[in-house]
Structures are given as structure tokens and as C-alpha cells.
Amino acid sequence: MKARTVGALGILTLALSACDSDLPPYHRLDRLRILAIAADPPWAGPGDTVEISALVSAPGPAPVELRWRWCPVDVGAASKEACPEPLSAPWPASDLGAEMQALLTLPGRAHIEARCTAVPDGCPDGQLVVFVQLEAMTPNDRLVGVREVVVDLEGRSHANPEIEDVEARGGTRAPVPLDSQAITTVPSGELELALWPSPESAEPADGGTEPLTVSWFVDAGELEVNRSRPATLQDPATNLWSLDPPGPEGPAATLRTVIRDHRGGTAWASFRVEVAP
């Protein structure tokens, strides 16, 4: 079984058995992938319950088995061992289950402050960082990702960004809104993709508006870029998707989009499109 890792807030994937030149394009959904891990809220307060979810992609019908763990120290994505720190109430147990989502309930303020006092670096800027690890497995592959969860002691809030609309335009045709709940028919050839974040996604940060980055993934055709940014909320993140006419395997293709801000906020949307003959 191959072992690969995903960085704490990024999507760096390492295939230990292959050279860089052997790797498929970053945007191609042709193997087990952890595309994103989100915490809601991304910045939590003492006593809050944080919902952790993931966007996991795997080709074929084989089921993907998930396992969630958490630890107050970073054990690294490669580790399958239990958290090295002893965990006792009111801290939750390390094992967070095997469902599509996991819940991490944080202890109250006194216990968070005690933790800040116990660790060598304390809690810089009034924030404690804990770590959630996701292990995703199929019969032939294993992938591990780590997500940081920020516990803020100063009462500062931070929300995940949101995807408001995604459209596809083929040639001179009118833009087609993509529907995450249904299959959308699009022409073959080069499609212009556009993604708009919601107005609430532009949170203030560092004296301005927090920048947003969109990552794009497909299981058919080719994308012009792996990532792009919306210049403003009026100017969407864009990409070009080259799709071939339908072949013997059928006309359907998958597009997945992930939007991130620079403080760990994450959201995604998935679409199925049908390529017209």
C-alpha cells in the first residue's frame, strides 16, 4: 500500500514511490485525494464544539474508509500512533470516529489557559493551536491529512468563506450556471469557468480585505491553472477547462472547487457536467 501525506492547511501530496516527473497533474482526480479539510468555525472559543469535515475524492466504486484523531501537539501526517500526550476529561478522547464529519468539543477557558501555561511557547497572540488528523484508506492506497484548529482566547471570530455561484461558458454561448444538486449539460471544447465568493467571504484582515484563493480539480479534460484568485467580489476567480467530446465511457465529468482564505477558512463545491455531443 502506498503512503502519502497532505500538509496541515495545504494540499501538498507526496507519493513516496514515484518521482516528480511521474506524477499526474495536480488538478487531476485519478487517485485517492484529500482535497480539503475544513473546521467550522475555523477559529473557535473555549467550550465550543468544532465540526471537522473533508472533501475526499477517489476513482471507482471502492469505498473510502475514514478515521479521525486529534491531539494538542502536531504528531505529523505520517504518524498512525496515538497522541503522545495523555488526554483526560474535560479534554475529549483522541479518537474522533470514522464518519464523514467529526466533532471536537473543547474544554472551558480555565483548561485552555492551563494548557497555554504548560507548553513551552505559551499561546502567542492569545491563541492555542490543536491538530486534527484524517486518515483516508481504500483497498490499495492510504492518505493522511492534518488540519490545524485555532482556539482563540480573545473572543475574535472568523468564518469560513462561501462559494456563491459557479458558471461555465462555451464559445459565444451564454454562461451556464452549474448546479451542485444536478447534472449540467455543457458543450465540448474550451469552457470558461468563473467562481464568485459570497460578499460575506471578504472579511477584514491586516487593514484590508482578506485575499481568497480557489483551487480547481477535474476528472476529465485539462485545466489551464490549478489555482486562481478573485480580484474583487465583482471579478470572479476564473479558469479554462478543455473537455473532449463524449467517449465510450460516457459524457459525465466532475469539477470540484475549493476556496480558502489566509486564516484557515475553507469551503468547497462539487459539480457533475454532461458533455454534449
Q: Can you tag this structure with a few keywords?
A:
globular, 277 residues, disordered N terminus, six-stranded mixed β-sheet, mainly beta, five-stranded antiparallel β-sheet, 21 strands, single chain
Structural summary, described in words:
This protein is mainly beta and 277 residues long. The chain is built from one helix and 21 strands. The protein has one helix spanning 109-118; strands at 2-6, 33-40, 43-44, 49-57, 65-71, 95-97, 101-105, 127-138, 141-152, 163-170, 176-177, 183-186, 189-197, 204-205, 208-209, 213-218, 222-223, 227-228, 237-243, 252-260, 266-275. Strands 1, 3, 5, 6, 8 and 9 form a six-stranded mixed beta sheet that branches. The longest helix has 10 residues, at 109-118.
User: In percent terms, what proportion of residues is strand?
Assistant: over 45%
Helical coverage, percent range? under 10%
Q: How many DSSP helices?
A: 1
Terminal CA distance reads: 39 Å
Describe the main β-sheet briefly: 6 strands, mixed
Task: State Rg.
Answer: 20 Å
pLDDT average, as an integer? 86
In sequence order, what are the helices and strands, one letter per element?
EEEEEEEHEEEEEEEEEEEEEE
Structural class: mainly beta
The tally of strands reads 21
Low-confidence stretches: 1-20
So what's the overall shape? globular
